[in-house]
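Entry for 4'-deoxy-4'-aminopyridoxal-5'-phosphate complex. Fields follow.
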Amino acid sequence: MTRLTQHQNYSQVIQEINCQFGAQKVVVYLDYNASAPIRPEVADSINLAINRCGNPSSIHEAGRIARQEVEKARAAVASLVSGNSRSVTFTSGATEANNQILVGTAEKNQSIDVIITSSIEHPSLLIPATTASIPCRLVPVGNEGTIDLNVLADLLAQHEGRALVSIMWANNETGVIQPIEEAAELAHRFGALFHSDAAQAVGKIPVDMARTGVDALSISAHKLGGATGVGAVVVRPGIDLKPLIRGGGQENRLRAGTENVPGIVGFGTAAALAKSDIVESSSISSLRNRMEAAISSIGGGDITVHGKRSPRLPNTSCISTRLIRSETQVIALDLAGCAVSSGAACSSGKVERSHVLTSMGLPESKVKTAIRISLGWGTTQEDVDQLVGAWSKMYRRVVHSSAA
Ligand code: PMP
C-alpha cells in the first residue's frame, strides 16, 4: 500500500467519524508525537482479534490461538528494536514501562542506590524518578537540547556500580535525539544499568538494542500507528526486571493481568509496518525541512526552530514565533483545520510551561510561544502546504494588528 493510499484511507476514516459526530472535519493532522493515527492494517488486525475470543492463559484451542497471536506480536516488537522476544513484557504503554523500570525494578534492587536521569524526560519517567525512595540526580541539557555527557560521567564516577541511568532516546517536544550509544557506554564503564524511554524514537529512527548496548527500553504502540493503552518494556537477557503490577503469572510473572490481546496484536502489526517504513524517514524529514524553511522565510527573525543544530527525529519540529502565545497558535490553527500541539505538556487540560524548553535555557518569551508540529506515515506535501498557509495567515494577522 502506498503512503498516499494510506493517507486517503485515514482521511476517509476521519471524515466518517466527524460526520457521525457532526464535528468540523479535521483536514490536516500534524500531532503524531501525541498519538499517531492508527494504521488501517493495524485497525484490521485489531478488529479480527476483538472478534475472536480466548484468554492466552487458557489451555483450550481458543486460548492457544490467542497465545500464538500474542507471541507473534512479541516477536515483531522484539525485531523492531533488535531485542530478544523472550525479554519483551507487554504493558499498558510507555508510562507503565517507565514505572516498571523505576518503581518496580530500581527501587527494589538492593544494588541500586541512585537514579541518574535527564532534566528533559517525559513526566512518566521524571515524576517516578524524582519521587522514588532512592535519590535522583539530574543531568542537564545544553541549549540545543542534548544531555551533558561530562556531567553524566561525573555523576557515574560518584556512584560507581550503584546507579540506574535512564536517558530518553528522543525528546517528545523537540525531537532532539540523545547520544544514547555514548551514554550507555559510559554507564557500563561505571557499572551502571542503562534504560532508555524510546517511546518517540521507535518506529521513527532505527533503535537497535543489540548495537547500542542499552539494557532496557520503554515503547508505546500509539506512537507508531498502534492503539493507545499498550506498550512494552524490553530488556537484555539477564537483566533482572521486577514486576510493578502483581497478581496472576502472566507475562512470565512480570506483569499480572490478562493480556490486552487486541491491543498487543495491533502493536505487532504496527511494529512490522514500522520496520519496513523507517527507510521512508528521509521523505518525512524533507517535508519537515521544507515546512520549517517556509515558516522561517515568512517569519524571518521572529522564528526559532528548537534543537535545529542537533540530530533530530525526522518528523518533529518545535517552533517559537515571537508575539504569539502557544495556545493562541494552536487554537488558530485548529480553527483552520490543522491539528498541532503547544510545545508545553498538556495532560490535564491545562497548558503548563515546558520543562524541556526551560531546561534548554530558553527565555520565557520563547517558551511561551512554542508549538510542536509532528508529521508521520500519512503526511503529504498538501498537508504541509495547508499548515504553512494557515500559519502564515495567522502570523500576518497578528503582525499587522500589532503594527496598527
Ligand atoms: N515517554 C515519552 C517520551 C512520550 O512521548 C510519551 C507519550 N507522550 C510517554 C512516555 C507515555 O506513553 P504512553 O502514552 O504510552 O503512556
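NOTE: Residues 140 and 304 are 21 Å apart (CA to CA).
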